[in-house]
Amino acid sequence: xxxxxxxxxxxxxxxxxxxxxxxxxxxxxxxxxxxxxxxxxxxxxxxxxxxxxxxxxxxxxxxxxxxxxxxxxxxxxxxxxxxxxxxxxxxxxxxxxxxxxxxxxxxxxxxxxxxxxxxxxxxxxxxxxxxxxxxxxxxxxxxxxxxxxxxxxxxxxxxxxxxxxxxxxxxxxxxxxxxxxxxxxxxxxxxxxxxxxxxxxxxxxxxxxxxxxxxxxxxxxxxxxxxxxxxxxxxxxxxxxxxxxxxxxxxxxxxxxxxxxxxxxxxxxxxxxxxxxxxxxxxxxxxxxxxx
Length: 292
What we know:
- The structure is a single chain.
- This protein is α/β, with parallel strands linked by helices.
- It contains twelve helices and eleven strands.
- The strands form two sheets. The chain has a seven-stranded mixed sheet, sandwiched between helices. The chain has a four-stranded parallel sheet with strand order 6-5-7-8, with helices on both faces.
């Protein structure tokens, strides 16, 4: 590859997607860690919530999102969605070819392992969407990851907290409703005294304070933060870090598949930026993308 082609690849944006606002927790960490990069964020709001969709529907919509990013010539695709990561990651990698595609699940499991006591069977609660819990990916992968690294196999308990997603999408994460939703979902989990809880949906870090109130003795693992560091390492190893940008101005384009009133304000609140507009895009592809 020529130096010019290499630089073009480094300057290309990073694609980040979720079914809604949850993936912004990943983007928020990336903007802090890698502010020199440019980003394209896609919220598939027309098909949300993914957590209550069938695996076949999640797969179809996710692969359409991959197609969107291929059209935008990104240098990497980030699955900022545990449900998509659990169901469609391998198929997406095949569709993307040589383009790096990274999901959020492995980073969260590694972060949980780093927080655990290697010498005993710790209790881990996985807080996720209905689809992620039904898939069972965390229940399968956590014990395998621990034992592969000579940790005592942990005790894993999954809990679907699907209502958390709607609280976030409605912009109510700092409302008393968030505390009520957390307590309704987690009071039984608290009785089991988990030492670690993985926030296995990127919406959930926005409810971290409410979740911590319901699980006061539990260490919360934020997959979004762990994923951002993993992305930095991967970009470095692939020589894809953008080294040409000198100013500190953020470069992010936002797309939604269905416009919702107030979405600009909610994006701005999460990222602490002022946002004038988002773009609408139809990802139900025929021959070409239509966007305005």
